[in-house]
Amino acid sequence: MSDTLLIREDNDGICTLTLNRPDAYNSLSLELMQALITTFDEIADDISVRVIVLKGSGRGFCSGHDLKQMLGEGEEAYYQCTFDTCSTLMQRVVNLPIPVIAQIHGVATAAGCQLVASCDLALASEKSRFATPGVNIGLFCSTPMVALSRVVTKKHAMEMLLLGDMIGAERAWEMGLVNWVVADDELEQKTAEVAAKVAASSRKAISIGKQAYARQIDKPLAEAYAECSKVMTGNMMTHDAGEGIDAFINKRKPEWQHR
Known about the structure:
Shape: globular
Organism: Amphritea balenae
Protein name: Enoyl-CoA hydratase domain-containing protein 3, mitochondrial
CATH topology of the largest domain: 2-enoyl-CoA Hydratase, Chain A, domain 1
Strand order of the largest sheet: 1-2-3-4-6-9
Family: Belongs to the enoyl-CoA hydratase/isomerase family.
Radius of gyration: 19 Å
Mean pLDDT: 96
GO molecular function, one term: hydro-lyase activity
Number of helices: 11
Order of helices and strands: EEHEHHEEHEEHHEHEHHHH
CATH class of the largest domain: Alpha Beta
InterPro entries: ClpP/crotonase-like_dom_sf, Enoyl-CoA_hydra/iso, Enoyl-CoA_hydra_C, Mitochondrial_ECH-domain
CATH superfamily of the largest domain: 2-enoyl-CoA Hydratase, Chain A, domain 1
Number of strands: 9
Largest sheet: 6 strands, mixed
């Protein structure tokens, strides 16, 4: 297990992916990013998986890019490959048909913070810390900025990007970077509860909704409503919508077929 960069565990529709480079604070080596992309592509077509929990092993969630690896290579083409792969990874998270939940303990910095911002939901330990500290080493966090600027306000994003300071979990919650802050010893349980609630829903409905959200968010109001009116019409034609409505009317538990 110690030699496995990414550990996958599946249980009752919940797929838990553990970043497994504890000695390097789960930094995103090129190999780990590629492993994540490959696994996300496999999960996208796996109807048995309805939600993903992403977490880190060891003392922290993810410290960002593996700077030692990058400096060891030292070539522009390698840097471009690294950042392109990272951009592909983050877009995979956003474009997956099912939700991704970040479970954060310890630090989530630079590309690790970017990963949190890219996830659909995020739960943080009260002792977790976040930063986009590139300015401290002469490397502005430009790619983390893309994800960060889409989940927090402009001034909050620029505060993190320009100062590069660590912020605590409560401050991250105030900014909208995370959904919940819980005690260290409650993080696993609370994440499991949230994941189980998502997994209990129709995968088909969740997939339709997540993808529609991404399409409508930047549209003008009238276009967004036009888009989502079509989406809901299509959703009404699915098996699970009919099943869910019938179950509601007849006061019974729905039996999803995820189609």
